Amino acid sequence: MEDHSQFRLLSERRFLPFFVTQFAGAFNDNLFKNALLLLVTYTTGGLFGLSADVVVNLAAMLFILPFFLFSAIAGQVADRFEKSAVIRWIKFAEVVIMGIAAVGLWFGWYEMLFLLLFLTGVQSAFFGPVKYAILPQALKDSELVGGNALVEMGTFVAILVGTLMAGVMMKAPVPGPVIAVAVALLAIIGLIAALRIPKAKAAAPDLKIRFRPLQETWKLMAIARDNHNVFLSILAISWFWFLGAAYLTQFPNFAKTHLMGDETVVTILLAIFTIGIAAGSIACERLSGHKIELGIVPIGSLGLSFFGIDLYFNMPEQPIPSDWWMIITDPHYRQVAIDLLAIGIFGGLFIVPLYAYVQREASPDTRARVIAALNIFNALFMVISALLAMLMLGVIGLSIPEFFLVLSIMNLIVAGFVYQQVPDFALRFVIWVLSHTVYRVSHHHLDRIPEEGPALLVCNHVSYMDALVIAGAVRRPVRFVMDHNIFATPIMGSFFRLAKTIPIGPKSKVPEIYEAAFDRIDEELAAGHLVCIFPEGKLTKDGEVDTFKSGVDIILQRRPVTVVPMALRGLWGSFFSHCGGPAFSHLPKRFWSRIHLLADHPVGPEQASASFLEEKVKALRGDHR
Q1: Is the pLDDT of residue 448 over 80?
Q2: What's the alpha-carbon Rg for the chain, to the nearest Å?
Q3: pLDDT per residue over 26-72, tens digit each?
Q4: How are the residues of the chain apportioned to helix, strand and coil, as percentages rounded to the nearest 5?
Q5: Phi-psi region for residue 103, left (φ > 0), alpha (ψ -120 to 50) or beta?
Q6: How far apart are CA 79 and CA 130, in angstroms?
Q7: Are 168 and 6 in contact (CB under 8 A)?
Q8: In what order do the strands lie in the sheet with 530-533?
């Protein structure tokens, strides 16, 4: 039996060396950056004649500035050249940078280390686009969510471990040399792993690289805006980094001021938040059913806001001095930990499907440049996050819990805007919830549906849930043909219009709707979409497959396309079927029912006919109603 777990990727060469490379890089970046800040804060008390507080913000700017300056060029390089070679050169540069940094750490040359911090940011800016652009080439579509989940989990765990190790190493009698050896060793491990990454061919080998940072950055924005849904997904990802940066930056003062915690409380809050994101990322694979499922994204955004608001209302009214153990065990503090863990989990659910969606939907020859644009937006949003925190906490005078509350409310507003602009998110959310609460859907041979290009899906019609079950199971968006009367109901009508459903009615009663339906079907097929029809024309009243009408023949005469016969089993007898009387006329008798959706081998248009497809669907359904 095939193993569908994303963790099997960690045993395969096409993924493991890349995973180790990116993990070691993220680990090293955070170890070096945090160790440098701790050394400057506790050893010298400042640098360049500046206070430690100013130096901390200067370091953050030096690390993030290269993402604005060099992401455009990095995206061009990743599209222009073979990707494993690009990664090896980046990792070789890291070995050189960290080798020099090791010398600086050993001898305490802190001014030089700040220049190297900028170069570390440059190296990370070049790694970002190729890091995400290589995944769709190395993984199957069904593995893309799992692969991204592992990458996000690895990245946040590396951030956590790097940050913690910096603090641990500072406790050494002479911390500089210990940190020097660690950063040099991690860079070498990253390079060795990179040497094992399989080749991934260049996406745009004829691309001319232009070293014009500002002009190319602006051009990059235009490339990202080419696909409206991808662009809004990029903004949604950057919004997550806006929120994440806001939370992480405030943890030290939040722990000290509002929890009266010692330094171990900052560490445990960071650990809880990071573990939550890692857990949420990994959960995406199971919740999405091994495909890119946008329906999870609204769940993530709702959870981010709900638990952010809950955090505000569960702050201890009269905090007492605390340590990390109290945060976990004391009921007054434990809810804070639970809320932060949940915020992390729902953050993982929010971000992983979006990354996978951007990778899949971006054109292969511009994918790395789209990811580069994403990195620029991420950096920009994190800077704006810091400025907003300074405004609200310093100028307006909000407390940190009040700031978190404002962020949670803002998140609902931003989410509402994105889902209104990209209806697929809201649509997939409704479908996902219904297909994971009312029913347990098993899929059989849905890989027989073409991955691209037009196709006509034909299926038996058992209940009012049929379209939602199919839409939730099929990876590609599907345009359904449905009775025009359903559009008259306010809620259901709005929902199906959002889903771009095609209304149809009897030719004898509503000829204009009938003709318009076939025109729409032809347009959707011409545009390369999937169209699903229920050729019986109505719900079954006895559970059996009724006679297929001639509509399918008309469609294929106008537009000869591949036809995929499908069958639903297990929906007869549900609340939404006509079993025991009209649908909705009797109380539901079962929930979480097991139903099956099956697909047969595709049929060519020259062979397909209403009668032939009827027999195919009957045979596929068998005796299971």
Answers
A1: yes
A2: 28
A3: 999 989 988 887 777 666 555 556 565 566 667 777 888 888 888 88
A4: 65, 10, 25
A5: alpha
A6: 8
A7: no
A8: 439-444, 593-599, 562-569, 455-459, 530-533, 478-483, 502-504
